[in-house]
Known about the structure:
Layout: E1 2-7, H1 10-25, E2 29-34, H2 45-50, E3 58-59, H3 67-85, E4 89-93, H4 97-108, E5 113-116, H5 128-139, E6 142-144, H6 148-156, E7 165-167, H7 172-180, H8 184-187, H9 190-193, E8 201-205, H10 209-212, H11 215-231, E9 233-235, H12 240-248, H13 263-272, E10 275-278, H14 281-289, E11 294-296, H15 304-308, E12 312-314, H16 319-329, H17 346-355
Parallel strand pairs: 1-2, 1-4, 2-3, 4-5, 5-6, 6-7, 8-9, 8-10, 10-11, 11-12
The structure holds uridine-5'-diphosphate.
Amino acid sequence: MKIVTVLGARPQFIKAATVSRALREIQVTEVIIHTGQHFDRNMSEVFFKEMAIPRPDYNLEISGLSHGAMTGRMLEEIESVLLKEKPDSVLVYGDTNSTLAGALAAAKLHIPIAHVEAGLRSFEMKMPEEINRILTDRISRYLFCPTTTAVDNLKREGFDAFECEISQPGDVMYDAVLYYKAQVPKKSTILESLEVKDQPFSLATIHRAENTDNLERLGAICEALNQINQQSKVILPLHPRTRAILDKNNIRLDFTPIEPVGYFDMLALLDGCNLVLTDSGGLQKEAYFFSKYCITLRDQTEWVELVEAGVNTITGTDMALITQAAAKGMGKTVTTSAQLYGDGRASQLIAEKLSKI
Ligand code: UDP
């Protein structure tokens, strides 16, 4: 039994960590390809190290290209690895160009594809992630959905009639939080070094193309963060792409953003903050796992159950909406009794299924 896993970007390293661990526990051979989509130390290496993900067997070092060039080069390189390794299945995560390239390379070689985080939809076809996830789902054999909404999306799109198996093991990001959070006190000192151990602060991230590639939207988010920062400090671990765009266009923040942080530091920040503002997918759920109110700086979300539960609000980039939502959500402890993201055993269920393919 051999699985080839294709990883490339930060959220995929985090999603893969507990699945990879579960595969090792049942002695399934996993060969890891790192496409190189994210390569900086604090966007890639730190996660492999901290989360004890095995070193990639193949480093393709493909980054910094346009969507077409990047996906095309990945496709070519992944195909040659698959021809050499001859795996029983190919495992892909989420919705990046690496996900699509891995799935496409496998599909053309008739290797069954397992897609973790299947069925998510924003219904915004301009998002590169939406294109990647719809196409990956369509050619995957094993569709591992994190939520009931994701299963419903696939059913509505007619997936019951396709040659695939839909299941709902839960969300592997929940597994990761449960597994790693006990180690945070020993492994992170970020609250002390940022001097916020007993101070209220908001945690923000901005990286989604619809915000960074639109200066009006990006400017409005920064202005809202500046306003919130006057009441309570904002901590913004800044994605390198966002930083480059802010610098190039002279968009001003009244506070100093920090470099992207590793997973343990992120968990410490989530635990210590009193509000999350983000355009990230993963962080919206993590805010909920830490009982923090989340303001989603987008016009829609794939994680609609959080909005329905009243723990997440979609503000887009409207400054007034953001600051009003911040006033409402700051310091609020949010909980729901529902197990929206499974019971923390998603990785184990996925690994068991993969071992039987
Ligand atoms: N994350 C991190 N350090 C950071 C920013 C994000 O560890 O400086 C983690 C975050 O906690 C979440 C994941 O990266 O687990 C989300 O990745 P990202 O926001 O890049 O992608 P998305 O979830 O939007 O696909």
